[in-house]
Write a structure and sequence with these properties.
By secondary structure, the chain is of the alpha/beta class. It has two domains: 155 residues, Rossmann fold; 183 residues, Vaccinia Virus protein VP39 (Rossmann fold, 3-Layer(aba) Sandwich). It is built from eleven helices and 18 strands. The protein has a seven-stranded mixed beta sheet with strand order 3-2-1-4-5-7-6, sandwiched between helices. A seven-stranded mixed beta sheet has the order 12-11-10-13-16-18-17. Helix 4 packs across helix 6 and helix 7 packs parallel to helix 8. The longest helix has 14 residues. The protein is elongated and about 65 Å long. The protein starts with a helix and ends with a strand. The protein binds S-adenosylmethionine. S-adenosylmethionine binds next to helix 8 and strand 11.
Length: 346
């Protein structure tokens, strides 16, 4: 479904005067949609933990935070495809409301919004609902009583859990949260010996690659984890925070790694990445190409960059444009692992 249609559906109860437009409200899973016109822009506190979207919201003039806090008379939640995340967001949203506050939730039918509506009805009791634009919009009013027992259960469902077979934790909604990604495992299997010095992990997720590198290579002096999802980075911190060599950066890698004063800039000896290839529903190889550019800019002249990607993605040409030597280390299970070294100057 078209993104602006989902906003139209979310705001429908206000447009139809079924609810009064609030002075101030939070919006979970916010995006700077055109449909959020000026009258809403000034009323909203947006929550967005994904850094590129957070930056877009700030640039479009929305008050934005990575995680909401405080008390509100009204709240809006855009439902996603992740059931555990939606349940936890509804529970958090209920807790953020003042007694008497209104919470409006909206999601596409294709993402299972109707089943969330049924759950909300059972747990909170519905104050109203609408069906339009292939979406469900439903709202509840917080009473004066204590939180329903399901709230604690739903919040617990979004807590970090053990990832099978690696001793690390991740929460639902993060990339490959219940098992180690095949591509990442493959990258670790063919990572050359001798990884040492300063290392960066671009799109580090909950920290699998970085944790393995720290475990296997004692000569690594420091590893910088760059990740756009704030909650994934929080999980990476739980997984690696005790190792003093790890540092955590909430960052849009596509916008480049932070610039340090030139005299202090210390490029990386090694960079590893299993880059994303889509944002939301849109597949876009330009995202991975942006990661390659970021790695090229931040790596030492003789540094080594190891990248894993779905074998159909057109990354080899970009690697060759940026590095003199590009070797295909492994092709298996639908992935390719490349080692690129000896960077070009331009
Ligand atoms: C394919 S996953 C790999 C995760 C992790 N390295 C692993 O091996 O499990 C790509 C990661 O990049 C993150 N990501 C997506 N867009 C990003 C961006 N613009 N900047 C930084 N990280 C991004 C995603 O949240 C995701 O955690």
């Amino acid at each position: 479904m078209n993104d602006s249609k989902i906003i139209d559906a979310l705001l429908l109860p206000f447009e139809r005067d079924l609810l009064q437009t609030p002075e101030r409200a939070f919006l979970m899973r916010a995006e700077p949609h055109e449909a959020l016109r000026e009258d809403w822009r000034s009323r909203l506190v947006c929550e967005q933990g994904f850094k590129p979207a957070y930056d877009r919201l700030v640039q479009a003039g929305f008050e934005t935070v990575p995680r909401l806090d405080g008390r509100f008379a009204a709240g809006l939640v855009l439902l996603t495809k992740h059931k555990a995340e939606n349940r936890a967001n509804m529970a958090r949203a209920w807790i953020l409301l003042e007694p008497g506050g209104v919470l409006v939730c909206c999601g596409a039918n294709a993402l299972g919004a109707a089943s969330h509506e049924r759950e909300a009805e059972r747990v909170f009791g519905l104050a109203g609902s609408l069906s339009k634009h292939q979406a469900r919009t439903f709202w509840i009013v917080r009473g004066t009583g204590a939180a329903p027992a399901e709230c604690a259960e739903w919040l617990a469902g979004a807590e970090p859990r053990p990832v099978e077979g690696c001793g690390l934790v991740a929460r639902a909604g993060c990339f490959s949260s219940d098992h180690v990604d095949k591509g990442s495992r493959l990258l670790m299997e063919c990572l050359p010996e001798g990884v040492a010095g300063r290392v960066a992990d671009l799109g580090a997720g909950w920290g699998y690659l970085s944790a393995e590198i720290l475990r296997r290579f004692p000569a690594v002096t420091g590893i910088d984890l760059y990740e756009a999802e704030a909650l994934a980075l929080e999980d990476a911190r739980s997984n690696l925070g005790d190792d003093g060599r790890a540092a955590f950066h909430w960052l849009d890698v596509g916008a480049g790694l932070p610039k340090v004063e030139p005299q202090k800039f210390e490029p990386y000896d090694w960079i590893v990445s299993n880059p994303p290839f889509h944002e939301g529903r849109k597949a876009d190889p330009a995202i991975g190409q942006g990661f390659i550019t970021a790695a090229w800019k931040a790596i030492r002249r003789r540094g080594k960059f190891v990248l894993v990607a779905n074998r159909s993605l057109p990354y080899e040409a970009e690697l060759r444009r940026r590095f003199r030597e590009v070797t295909l280390l492994r092709e298996a299970e639908g992935f390719k692992v490349y080692l690129a070294s000896n960077r070009h100057d331009k």
